[in-house]
């Protein structure tokens, strides 16, 4: 990675600040020195660089000018061969943007940083005094070994050990010596729990065998007890049966004795005993009924013969039935005829009335008078139209007279208005109208007012501004003509003045610093001389010269005096030499101090000269400005001059505006005159009377009046024309109305002539016809109604005659006297006779039926009596009995015999059941020998024993039951197998975890060993690198670095050139800082080799370095610049000079507050 | 009338399955007690096929099996056969030779014949024609270093002779021989059908007679992989022997190799796993398929597979669930990063790997440290797990060496994951 440009767009004190580092020059170290005094913003730039790479810090302190929301930095970075412009804003996320403001993944940068984080970068490659020291201290104070620290930070693997520790903790989670809460412990507890669970529900084979044996034993005992109990129970049952059989033997014997006499009785067919009483009763009933029936038959025959029938009446019965319809019509006619006759007369009267109304009372054929529908329609239509025709004619006549009147009125008004003007006049007046309109549209009046006001205002302003230019005096044109310095002169003077002032200040500081340094060194030299009595080189040389002179003198003279003198000088020299030998180190220091002092004096002199030059430059610049200002502002400074020129500019501006206002005023006056001339010409042409000298406004009034008069005349002429057109229209409408009236009268005459209305010659009047039409409309219906009624009366009279004829004919057939009886009475007589004959016929048929039924009954009765007699004879023959009474006795004996036989069989069966004997004979034999008393005694004894045995059996069964249940309870379920399966799975899990644990531990241990080895190797390479760097920086005062194990840490030791050694913590501050820098340089090389090249940035870390060592340190930076990019920020100008000297390719930048971008100085 | 029987052996009733897959309670419920279910399958087969007999050639249960619940279950199942009029012939194997629970069992009278230490030949009367004699001999001890064949009664003339024997046949290296004999001896002995037991993998040899090792009816771990079955035998009236294999296993263990060469994306790897599982699943006859994945091949995912082992396990399990009735019991990893040896020499992790291989592992100090760790752990493990790293010194060292290699890879993977600077990596 390389930083090509850094933009501080809005960051800290900077706004739109940018520093470009340009492309590296091949073959030259990529080293950049940025020079800037205090407060110039060097630290800000360092922070901005880190913020660009890693994001603006959450609580950044660079928000004092630009708030967080607007903070923005940017830069152009070379990332892996490509150049990218990136922008960083302050945001929680997506704060890295590309040139198009689109978010860019942090990875773009992270990938180029070799995994190093902000803190590591700061501690290793982005140094200032603080980080240099803090990082270095932590290296020295570290309890770990030095190699690890260097290695970790530079290789970006700082967390490897951490990862290994985490893995170790992970492994410990499974098992750790003597630890309790491990997974392994949990697993073991679960195993134990499963074992216990299994033991609770499982039955092993041995226990099962014991259970089975206990069960079998209980079963055997139970079965024995049960057998004994059963034996007792059997004997008890036997005794009980014998005792109960004894009474049954007695019953058997009694039955046998009673059966003896009934042995010979023949058996009777089933049902006889039940049938016998019925047979006897039936014979008696049948005889009685036969007698009664014979008597009734005789009576019925007699009654049948007594019924008589009227044959004549019977013959006409059907004809009489048909009379009903004729009868009904006869009766209706008698009621209806008078009513209908009345209605017929009413209709007749109505017709007569109508004829009278229409004046035709004598009309013989009223039907002729009824008018057809077409004629009636035509007449009614004409009647309806009549009034419309009349109204139209009247209206047309009225409107015509009105129109004539109005035309006369209009013509009179036009005449009165003086109708002399013509079309030509109108054309001239149109030209005049245009001129008046142009005058109205013109804005010259308003413009004149504005121009006058503007003129006055600008005169005032100009006067004020001229006053402000004093002490200069003169008019405005003189002012404009004055020669003054231009803008480029001003800029040049300003830059020169600023540069001269800056130089002046800086040189002044340098002089002060050089003098202070000079004083300090002189004091240091004096201190060495005074405190230690050291003789300076110069002094020693003088003494040595004196000694040589004395020796020469002595050689020449060889006398005592010369010898003494020589001795004195020799001794003094010895003393000096001895002292110098004794204080060899001090002498060296003195020597060094003297040299340094000499250099400081030279520096001071140089600074003094530079300062003097700067003063001169400043004075020259100020003098040049004063000369330029003399003509108008004698003795002015640059600022005053600038202000006066500004005021002059404003005065000239006011003059320009005043001139403009005057120009406007003149233009307005010209416009007004032009318009007036145009109006005068138009009035002349139109012949309008006017005063040619009058004001333009007066002229305009006269012209307007002429225009208005012409407009009024035009309106009146148009009105007369309109009224003439209206009169013609009214005349046309009146003629049309007259035509329509004539047409109506012709149609009316035609309609009346087509019917009887026109019979008298002339057509009747409209009102007459309207009345006739109404009356004739009623005449038709009245005629129809009369004809209908007369027809109905005739038909009813015919019905009455038919009925009377039929009744008379029937009466004759019955030999009835027809006489004068009315048909209705005669009909009544006939109907009564027919009804009587019908009743007689019905009675005779009924009696015949009854007689037949009685004869059939008699027949059935005879058959029943025959059957009854046959059955009685059969029974008597079977028992050889004389009567049915005897038969009944025999049947009763048979019944008793069956009963006794049943009793005997029952007794036999009971005895056999009780004794379980094969035959009754054996049973009788056994019972004969049984002693009832002895048996009952034995039974009582046995009952007591049985109760005892029964209880024992129950107890034993309960025991057996329990034992059997226990065996059954073992069951064949899979509960134990399931637990075993869980246990097996658990064991597998333990094994898996154990293998995992061992694998992890083996891996961790291997990695730890390897890591140590790795560090050892890389550390030695880095130590060498660091030694070399330290040797260089210390100007070979130290030959290098070594480390020495000290308990569990390592001490870093600096080895001096003379072979002596010092623990790093005991070195002076400056040397220690040099050591720290050397370590960083070594780390940078290692990092760049293993990972990436990143910019190495440092901010004035050489404060405590002397010039020689600073020079060497800069050499190292230049070497870094050969590998990557090195940027050094400083406020020491001498460092810039040194850098230029040792590395001509270095690029120097000067940072100053008043310059927007740094200047490349080299 | 043909004579039909079912021949099985090595039931190992109630011997638990040995798979970490059972950590999943759902699966434990589905395939737990698999040996019982397989045995029920055998009984059902006998009943459906209405065979004449069931022949069990030893190892009904493990020797250490002491729960009477196992025996009661066995008895209950055999009673079902009794009720259907099916006879059972049993010889004991090395496992159940001394079993106490057998002694305590009572089988229904006349239905079950358990052959003792003296050879017997039981004649089975058939309604029509075919006369069948069943021979059997149990050895009363878990060891039977000599062949039992000479002790059998000679085959009966004119009858079908079926013999039951528990034998390791020629034996397998690393296993104790049990009643050793050769196929040729058996073939020459004049029997019609040898109903063998002891070897858990099915094998059928047809020569003059049929020699059948039916294998176990339900495998218990990955070493007993494949579909497991029993043999349904029909001996026709003409004495020809017809053999059918019938599946009995509820669950089936299978190794599933997955080659991850040229796979660089996690989801592609899951796709490869799913495809491999589906491929094997298509041939798995048992209802449940318990898979052991073996990932191999050079892939850039090698580091991640090691560091995200648990995620891998979960993802693979999901793939298996999608396939249906498929379960992952373990994932073995034999992947390495592509060109691991030729990595950039300056990459610290690569250098660590080289140092581990070349300097650390061969060093005595390291070996002693690891051995001490292993021994300490071993002493703390439950007794059943003590043989975890092998029973003798040589095995122990070999096991440890393997652990060291794997462990170093795992830890390097973790360091690599930490050190990873590739921002795109998850």
Short account of what is shown:
Chain A has 1162 residues and is α/β, with parallel strands linked by helices.
Largest sheet of chain A: 6 strands, mixed
Overall form of chain A: flat
Give the low-confidence spans of chain B.
Answer: 340-345, 420-426
The outline of chain B comes out as elongated
Q: Taking all residues together, what is the mean pLDDT of chain B? A: 86
Kindly name the structural category of chain B: alpha/beta
Measured distance between first and last alpha carbons of chain A:
24 Å
The residue fraction in helices of chain A comes out at over 70%
Provide the β-strand percentage band of chain A. 5-15%
Quick one: how many beta strands of chain A? 14
Helical residue percent of chain B?
25-40%
Strand order of the largest sheet of chain A: 7-11-12-3-13-14
Q: How many β-strand runs of chain B?
A: 15
Enumerate how many helices of chain B there are, as a single number. Answer: 11
Rg of chain A over CA atoms, rounded to whole Å, is 83 Å
Biggest interface pair, counts: A-B, 71 and 74 residues
Which strand order does the major sheet of chain B show? 4-3-2-1-11-12
Report how far apart the termini of chain B are: 72 Å
Write down the Rg of chain B.
26 Å
Oligomer: heterodimer
